[in-house]
Write a structure and sequence with these properties.
The chain is mainly α and 155 residues long. It has two domains: 37 residues, no CATH class; 117 residues, no CATH class. It is 63% helix and 9% strand. It has six helices and two strands; from the N terminus they run E-E-H-H-H-H-H-H. Strands 1-2 form a two-stranded antiparallel ribbon. Helix 2 crosses helix 4, helix 2 packs across helix 6 and helix 4 runs antiparallel to helix 6.
């Protein structure tokens, strides 16, 4: 029988930097991950991606989600322009994520960036994007090359 879930140690979303890390405020927590939920997890489970490539994929995903949330709400920008004060830390993270994605696009080119966006950012599986085995194998090879480049950039 194939495993459908796996436990993994992940960053605690409720972690507060204003309090000391400890038993009541853990930095990391154990979470159950669905192996079918993410294409990156599926590829890593099958041994297609190594640890550096997975780390690059998750970093890209976090930046992509931050920029996506920035497009949905422009509160941080109004605060800067209208009030003349510093934007919130969240808005700063969004701007840093946008800068990271610009660097990624420049490094990977339009085709590579689009592939990484579809698989890592949007979570599409390779099978959902490409119909033939040859196209899927080529896309996986290209994805590995692009994730290697991102891992080298962020190392």
């Amino acid at each position: 029988m194939k495993r459908k879930t796996l436990t993994a140690v992940v960053d605690n979303p409720a972690f507060s930097t204003s309090q000391p890390a400890g038993e009541l405020n853990p930095r990391f927590v154990t979470a159950v991950v669905s192996l079918r939920e993410s294409s990156i997890v599926s590829l890593a489970t099958h041994g297609v991606l190594d640890a550096d490539q997975v780390a690059a994929a998750w970093r890209f995903r976090r930046a992509w989600e931050a920029v996506r949330s920035m497009r949905m709400s422009s509160a941080g920008f109004d605060e800067w322009v209208d009030a003349g004060c510093r934007p919130s830390a969240f808005a700063e993270r969004q701007m840093m994520a946008a800068t990271e994605l610009r660097v990624c696009r420049r490094l990977l080119g339009a085709h590579g960036y689009e592939l990484v966006c579809r698989v890592c950012g949007e979570g599409f599986h390779i099978r959902d994007i490409y119909a033939t085995r040859r196209e899927r194998d080529t896309a996986v090879d290209l994805l590995r090359i692009h994730l290697n480049e991102l891992a080298r950039l962020w190392r």
